[in-house]
Amino acid sequence: MTAILFFEQMLNGLGYGLMLFLLAAGLTLVFGIMDMMNLAHGSLFMAGAYLAAQVQGRSGSFVLAVAAAVVGVALLALLLEALLVRRLYGRDHLAQVLATFGVILVADDAVKLVWGAAPMMASPPAALSGPVELLPGLLYPSYRLVILVAGVLVALGLYLLVNHTRVGMLVRAGASNRPMAEFMGVRVDRVFSGLFVLGAALAALAGALLGPLTAVQIGMGEEILIPSLVVLVIGGIGSVRGAFVAAMLVGMVDTIGRAFVPMALRSFLSPTVVSDLAPLVAGLATYALMAGVLAFKPAGLFPARG
Amino acid sequence: MTSVTGHTSARLRWAPWAVFALLAAFPLVAPLLGLDFYVGFVRRGMVFAMAAASLNFILGFGGLAALGHAGFLGVGAYALVALADAGVRSAWLLWPAAMLAAAIASAIIGLVVLRTRGVYFIMSTLAFAQMLYSVAVSLRAYGGDDGYNLFERPAFGLGLDSAHEPTFYWVVLGLLALVMALFDRAGRSRFGHALAGIRDNETRMRALGYPVQRLLLVAFVVAGAVAGLAGALLVSHNAFISPATMHWTQSATLLVMVVLGGIGLRWGGPLGAAVWIALEEVLKHFTEYWHLPLGLLLIAIVFVAPRGLAGLLATPRGTGAT
C-alpha cells in the first residue's frame, strides 16, 4: 500500500467525519439542552439535499443552491419547532421518538409528492469537478477538498460560538445544568429555539454538500441518522467537543474498515474470502467502536453532565 | 406509569379470547365470503402481533424503550434461512433454532446496551439493530441486499401439511396464543413484578437487593427470542426475507404498534399491530402516499392518546386518558 493511497483515504475519512459532525453537532445541542430526541434530524438533512439539487438545477449556481438549502431548511425548522417540537420538550423520550418518527413518515411522502420517487441528480459545480494535486503524485477531487475546508470552517465557527460568545455560554450553561441556568434567568427555551434552527441549518448544509457525492433520494435521512447517533453516543450527549472527536473517530474507523482492512486481509486470505468478508468488516467497524466505548464509558467520552 | 395488570375492566376481559375464537374460525368462513386472500393477510398480522407483544413485554414491564427489536426478528429469520439452506426441513427444528439464535444475539447486545438507560438505551439499541442490518446486507450467500427466497415452507410433520394455508394459519395462531399466555404468566409472576418495580424505581429495587441487571437481561433475551420466533414465522409466511425487514424504521414501526395498542397493557401489542397493519393495507389501497396519513396519525396519538387504544378502552367512562 502506498503512502499516497493511505493519505487519500484518510482525507476521505476526514471529510465523512466532518459531515457527520455537522449533523451530530445539531443533534447533541438539542439533546443536551432540552433532553429532546429528534429522529427527524435526518429529514432536515434530506430536505437540504433536495432543495440544493433543485436550486442548482434551476439556477446553475452552487453557492446559491447551498445558501437556499440552508435558509430554506432553517425556515422549515422554525415552523417545525413552533408547531411540534416545542410541545414535546416536557414529554418522555418515547413520545419524542414516536412523534419525530411520524415527522419522518410525513417528510418522506412530502418529498415524494414534490420531487417524485426517483433519486435526483446533483453534481459538483463545474469549476470543482477536476482534481487538484495536493502533493506530488497525490491528486484529490477538488470538490471533496471544498467539503473538507467547509467542514473545518464550520467546526471552528461552532467552537468559537460555543466557547467564546455569550450565547455559547448560555448554551453550555443550559446543557450542563438546565434548571440552574433557568434559575439564573437564562431564557433556555428561547436559546433552544435558536439552537434547533442552527442545528437544522447545519444538517441542511451537510445535505447540500453531500448531495453531489451520494444519491439525493428518499430515505437518505434515515441512513445518515444512524452514524450521526453513533457519533452522539460515542461523544457524549450535549458535548460539541465530544461530537467532534467522535465524528473524527467514526470517520477514520469507517475508512479503515472500508479501505484498509480488506487490503490487510488480502495479504493472507484468498480474494474470494476477502470479498465476502470485507463488507461485513466495513459494516461492523463503527458499531464495534461504539460497543467498545459503551462498555467502558456508558455516558460517552465527553459527557456534558456529571 | 400505570400498573401493568388489572386495567382491563371485567366487561372486556373475555373480549381477546373471543377474538381468538373468531380468528380460529376465520379460515373456515373466509372461502364462503370470498375473503380467501385475507387469510394470508391476517396470518401476517398475527406474526407482527407476536413481535409487538414481545416488545411490549420489555417496554411495558421493564420500561426499556428498545428501538432495535426488528433486528432480532431478522436474526431469527436469517437463522432459519441459513439452516433451511443447509437442508433442515422440520419447522420444529427451524423455529426453535431461530429463537435460540435471536436469544444469543439479544444476550450479547443486551450485555452492552443494558449498561445504558434512557435516551442512550434508545440510541444504542437502534445502532446495534442497524449493525445487525448491515451484517444481513453483507451476507452474500443469502442474497445480500436482494434478500433470499425460501422455496419450501418448513414441514410440520405429525400429519399436518404446512403447504395447506389454513393449517399454517392455525399453527401461527396457536403459537401466538401460547406466547400471549406465556407473557401473561410472566407478568403475574415474581419476575414480572420485579421488572415493574425496576421500571418504576430502579434505585429502590437495587437497594432491596434485586439483581437488576440480570433481571433486565433475562427479559431482554426472552423478548429477543420471541421476536426471533416471529421472524422465523415471517420468513415462513412470506417465503422471502431481505435486510429491509430489519431496517431501523421497522423497529420504529414495532414501537409504534406497541404505543398505538397501549404500553404495558396485556393486549396492547397485538391490538396495535392489528390496527396499524390494517390501516397500512387500507391506505395502500387508496393512495401511493400512505406514509403521510400514518405519520400524522402517529403524531396525533402522541398528543391525544399516549396510553394507546387499549388504554382508551380500559379507561373508565368520564376520565380521559392523561
Q: How does this model look, in words?
A:
- Chain A has eleven helices and two strands.
- With 306 residues, chain A is mostly helical.
- Chain A has one domain: ABC transporter involved in vitamin B12 uptake, BtuC.
- Chain A has a two-stranded antiparallel ribbon.
- In chain A, strand 1 (131-135) and strand 2 form a beta hairpin.
- The N and C termini of chain A lie far apart (44 Å).
- The mean pLDDT of chain A is 88.
- With 322 residues, chain B is mostly helical.
- Chain B has one domain (10-246).
- In chain B, 72% of the residues lie in helices and 1% in strands.
- Chain B contains 14 helices and two strands; from the N terminus they run H-H-H-H-H-H-E-H-H-H-H-E-H-H-H-H.
- Chain B has helices at residues 10-13, 15-33, 37-61, 69-85, 91-113, 118-138, 165-188, 190-200, 202-207, 212-238, 248-261, 268-286, 291-304, 308-314, and strands at residues 148-149, 240-241.
- In chain B, strands 1-2 form a two-stranded antiparallel sheet.
- In chain B, helix 4 runs parallel beside helix 6 (118-138) and helix 11 (248-261) runs parallel beside helix 14 (308-314).
- Mean pLDDT of chain B is 87; it is low at 1-8 and 316-322.
- Chains A and B meet through helix 4, helix 9 and helix 11 of A and helix 6, helix 11 and helix 13 of B.
Following the backbone from N to C, one meets helices and strands of chain B in this order, namely: HHHHHHEHHHHEHHHH
- Looking across the biggest beta sheet of chain A, what order are the strands in? 1-2
What share of the residues of chain B lie within helices? over 70%
Instruction: Specify the biggest β-sheet of chain A.
Output: 2 strands, antiparallel
**How far apart, in Å, are the first and last alpha carbons of chain A?**
44 Å
Would you tell me which CATH topology of chain A applies?
ABC transporter involved in vitamin B12 uptake, BtuC
Low-confidence stretches of chain B: 1-8, 316-322
Biggest sheet record of chain B: 2 strands, antiparallel
Radius of gyration of chain B: 19 Å
Helical content of chain A (DSSP H or I, runs of 4+)? over 70%
